[in-house]
Design goal:
The protein is α/β, with parallel strands linked by helices. The chain is built from seven helices and 22 strands. The strands form four sheets. Strands 1-2-3-4-5-6-7-8 form an eight-stranded parallel beta barrel, surrounded by four helices. The longest helix has 14 residues, at 179-192.
Length: 376
């Protein structure tokens, strides 16, 4: 599952009222605003991207006062199309371009497909997204490098758009005119972005203390609960669920924002079903927090701390496949057993059943591909 996103359009209100809605959106994690009138004022509110038909905008909008919104008549063969010409011109000038199209008939549906091969984003405005046009456009543009955004009225519309054809749209646009709705739609986008990882039960076959090595602690900007951690392993396609330091211990206080992850060469799962080396993580990077049910959410790295510590090798087997990982050899470092309980590496032994994730495809530069790669 990819990360979904939400944009807001501003209501037709006085600036002070509009300002409160935009501020609420920013506080809810929505940082893209479609507004044609108050670009300078909005930029003063924070680090926000403006979508408008202006050279001052961060994302240049075409389709307003054009064929996209019905202001200009659209010819069936698209000859002399104003929107297509404007999109090509803006792209040639190096701009990030977004097209705005009201899907009122088949011709505008086809215009969306035409523009989808040119622009970076495309906003689709429809009367009812429970009908076919959205499915058609998503299917026709699936191979194009364009982000599809559905304009929706409410939370129910957001759910439909984000789930259409399983993949759904990449994002949604809605008018920010209600504080509660802004927060609810923002949360729906977060939930729609969550991947689900099918965790398997593997049997521990070997536990071996090693000498010292450079290990990585990943401190995130989120507080993790018991049962949450990260998918980490020596192999990019098979990983252990390494528990967060959210539990109290007689040795150290809990650090619920931290996963003591493993040595520098180990892999960690990140958003987009990709992996990174632990040694690559720096402040601001995205990582996945995964719970015992395989449900995930995105968090940001606050810092990555590398220190030399004694290590331990843990090997497990699932259906004839060997899985390995190295972790710091300390009582507070835990994996997760078959009953969803944290299991300290100081207590783990052959025969224990633990939760792991197995990827069917190999990986190249952290991306899952259909290729044979042997990791040992």
């Amino acid at each position: 599952m990819q990360n979904k996103f939400a944009w807001i359009s501003t209501p037709d209100e006085l600036w002070e009222d509009k300002k409160e809605m935009i501020t609420t959106a920013l506080e809810s994690g929505i940082d893209h605003v479609l507004d044609l009138d108050d670009i300078e004022n909005i930029k003063k509110l924070g680090n926000v991207k403006i979508i408008a038909n202006s050279d001052e905008a961060d994302i240049y909008l075409i389709g307003i006062n054009g064929e996209g919104d019905g202001f200009v008549d659209l010819k069936d063969d698209f000859t002399d199309s104003v929107d297509i010409a404007n999109a090509k011109k803006a792209k040639s000038e190096g701009k990030t371009v977004c097209a705005y199209i009201k899907i009122t008939d088949k011709a505008h549906e086809q215009l969306a497909v035409k523009l989808g091969s040119i622009v970076d984003y495309i906003i689709l405005v429809g009367t009812d997204w429970t009908i076919i046009p959205l499915e058609n456009i998503i299917a026709d543009l699936q191979k194009e490098d364009v982000e599809i955004i559905a304009a929706v009225r409410d939370l129910d519309g957001a759910k439909v758009a984000l789930e259409t054809l399983e993949h759904g749209t990449d994002g949604i646009l809605f008018e920010a005119n209600d504080f509660n709705q802004i927060k609810k739609i923002a949360q729906e986008v977060v939930e729609a972005s969550q991947s689900k990882y099918e965790l398997k039960i593997a049997t521990v076959t070997n536990v071996k203390p090693l000498g010292s090595g450079d290990r990585v602690c990943v401190d995130t900007t989120d507080m993790m609960k018991p049962g949450e951690g990260m998918l980490i392993g020596s192999y990019s396609k098979s990983m252990f669920l390494v528990h967060s330091e959210s539990l109290e211990s007689e040795y150290v206080a809990s650090r619920p924002f931290r996963v003591n992850a493993g040595p520098v060469q180990a892999y960690v799962m990140v958003p987009g079903n990709k992996t990174r080396y632990l040694s690559e993580l720096v402040a601001g990077d995205e990582v996945l927090i995964v719970n015992t049910e395989g449900e995930s959410r995105t968090a940001y790295v606050g810092r990555s701390k590398i220190e030399r510590r004694p290590l331990i090798l843990i090997e497990a087997e699932f259906e004839g496949q060997t899985i390995r990982t190295l972790l710091q050899n300390a009582e507070t470092i835990r994996i997760v057993d078959e009953n969803d309980n944290p299991l300290s590496v100081a207590e783990v032994k052959p025969g224990d059943k633990v939760k792991v994730y197995i990827e069917s495809n190999a990986r190249h530069f952290g991306i899952a591909i259909d290729e044979t790669i042997i990791e040992q």
